[in-house]
Amino acid sequence: MSSAASETGRSDVGLYRHPSDVARLVFALIALGFLLLLALLLDSQVSNVSADILAVVEAFPNALVNGLVGLVQLLVTLVPVVALVVLVRGRRWYLLLLLALASVVAAIAMSLLTGVIDESVPLEQLGYDRVTSWFIGSQYPSSTYLAMLTAWLVTAGPWMMRSWRRTGWVLVVFAMVAQVLSATEVPVRNLMMLAVGAAAGSLALVVFGAPRRSVNLDSVREALVRSGIQIDRIEPHQHGSGTPRFATSEPGGRRLFVRVIGRDQRDSAALLRLWRSLSLKGVGGGVSATPRRAVDHEALALGIFGAVVPTPGPVAVLGTADEAALMVSTYITGDRLADHSDVSDETLRELWSYVAALQHRRLAHGNLDTTSILVGTDGATLVDLEHANVDASDAALGADVVELLASLALLVGVDRAVDAARAELSDDVLERAVPMIQSAVLSKQTRIAVEDNELLDSLRDATAAVVGIEKVELAPVRRITIGGAVSFVGSLVLLAYVFNLAANWDQTWEAFKSANLIYAIPIILLMISTYFSGAMSLLGATTIDLIYTRTVAVMFGQSYLNRFTPANAGGMAMRVRYLQLNGLETAVAASAIALTSGASGVAQVVTIVVFLIWGGSSDKLSDFEFPDMGSIVIIILVIGAIATLVLITRFGRTVLRPWVASAMSKIRDSIGDLMRRPTKLGQLFGGALLGKLANVIAFWASMLAFGADISFPKAGAMYIIATTIGSAVPTPGGVGGVEAALTAALIAYGIDNATAAAIVLFFRTLTFWLPTIPGYGFFRYTQAKGIV
């Protein structure tokens, strides 16, 4: 092993964290996750494929297999030893430490995962005998050893010459083949070994850094000469892009521009573009599989765009000896528009005329900000077309307009940017762009430059005004949102509960038929009382006098909406609307709803404490096991650390903290008013406590209906704790989570599975689903009467 500085231009001076290493770490973890899911969810199919592969191997002559396996074992033993000797003699102590850390991580990870694979796809069940070896037994090399070897190879890659890297990977592949030949490992674990080793090595490089990776100028020069392009000199040329760029001069005086895409640039760009494609609808762009395809795409874009607007002319697409790809184009003399402090109206009009022409031809630049525009004596020229789209969607076309509007607004102000756009673009183009003026659409550099949403709000309002749009609804450009992720998790929990219920439906139904239905009458009455107590709590949260019967109708109506919206969002919106129509400002109405939620939380804590103390003096509370104090402290510290990290981010500083401060201020003001009116305070907390108590009694009655001999305080402790846990599931009303938690609590107490499921089904049907019928009627009634 030796430094690659002489051959590949890598320098050992200084260590840097490269985006490409982050990309490789992410890809390795994705591959590892996929293989784990494959082994756990499709274990029988994986076993069948493994058996088929080993059946083919069994047909090979034993002498050939023994010889090949022994040879590979000898190589994987000697090569690491020789590498260690070379590193020690060269005093490469930092690299040795890095290799040791990566090896430890890979070994620990592989050891932890070995049990998972052995349980899902055990090799012993495949029925193949392991062969012997003339060097060492067939157990060597193990997957853990090969994972460590892969981690070594990935970690040492930046310090190695390309030929040595290739040799190392060939050795790893041969070792994997030897494991298959000797029937030592399940083939899927060989692939997992590669993923674990690659992840461990990439993690070491991400954490500790690697030598700066520069482009080999000799290989670039050789590629240019090989294609017939004679050059006098070649020099680095950067103008805002992260990919290496060079300016060259031919003997005749013509200057050329060369952009180089190597393995590092491809991997880092692929991760960013893939995330943008997955997270945004229609504006993410594509991902080129190889550097050559990337430059081929750019050359195509330069040719097509150049027929419409000024762009550099494509000259050649080349490949180098070290597998990089070159995009050679004509050199454009000029400065970036972003570097101009004084931009004329003529230049602005010219730029928007380019955009109009591109929009007409459905061509999208993909990153049309002021760093991608060169301004020279002959006017403006569009450059950096690596992300261009030659058959763009409406979203991609709108994103181009938004990007240029935002970057120009930073440079010349909102009014000048919008006025110039209005002069050249049609109403249709601007109307398409207005809903997309949001931070998610912008490129990273523009989004950082904008810093906050005030400029975007002004830009959106100004653009909407010139085309006569009174109310703007933002386009749903995000595929991945917090709400969507929450709903996805909630849906998984709900599906898990439904599948579990369906799997034991026969026993559950038999237990359900044994219920004493006379208990349904008090349970339904208790359910109805919760809406009266909820109305009482809402009356107590406001300083105005509300009509009690109308408030009860609203509480019934909002229960219907809460069955279809997570976190009771629909019901909250209905109650806010009701308070607004009764004369409260929106902020005050929202504060009142927040107070009712806070009172409910206080009532939840009070009932937990009361029933735990009360239940502790009665039977069998000791059957429940609660987390020890150390675990509780750790959980609190973890939650606090996560909250702190969120609050110190730019989003936390600019959005979350001001929102929390404003909400707390409004709640303090509301509580201050209520403290001066004890009756209101009693209604607020009394209604919340009565509602909790009614639900506890209803749950206890449901257990009595099935003959479960559980005391009331025990039932109360069980219900409050289980619903607190289950309600954390982000589904409407905690559906799935509450049922699962209540069922688990009953089973933990000693009730059989079928009876526990039947009790929960009986209780939730009467108290959660049955109110949906009158809730819909009250919802329509309140709308018809103008109450909401």
Give average pLDDT, whole number.
78
Unreliable stretches? 1-13, 125-129, 617-632
Report the biggest beta sheet as strand number plus sense, adding barrel if it closes: 5 strands, antiparallel
Strand content: 5-15%
Count of helices?
30
Q: Find the count of extended strands (DSSP E, 2+ residues).
A: 10
Shape: flat
Question: Which structural class fits the helix and strand makeup?
Answer: mainly alpha
Helical fraction equals 55-70%
Strand order of the largest sheet: 3-4-5-7-6
What is the end-to-end distance?
A: 76 Å
Rg over alpha carbons: 34 Å
Structure description:
The protein has helices at 5-8, 19-41, 43-58, 62-89, 93-120, 143-156, 162-181, 187-208, 217-226, 263-279, 291-306, 345-360, 394-412, 414-424, 427-433, 444-450, 454-466, 482-503, 505-513, 520-540, 548-562, 569-581, 586-616, 629-648, 650-675, 678-705, 712-726, 737-749, 753-769, 772-784, and strands at 15-16, 210-211, 233-236, 245-249, 255-261, 314-319, 325-330, 335-336, 373-376, 379-382. A hairpin with a 2-residue loop joins strand 9 and strand 10 (379-382). It has 788 residues and is mainly alpha-helical. Strands 3-4-5-7-6 form a five-stranded antiparallel beta sheet, sandwiched between helices. A three-stranded antiparallel beta sheet has the order 8-9-10, with helices on one face. The radius of gyration is 34 Å and the shape is flat. It has 30 helices and ten strands. The longest helix is centred in the C-terminal third of the chain and has 31 residues, at 586-616.
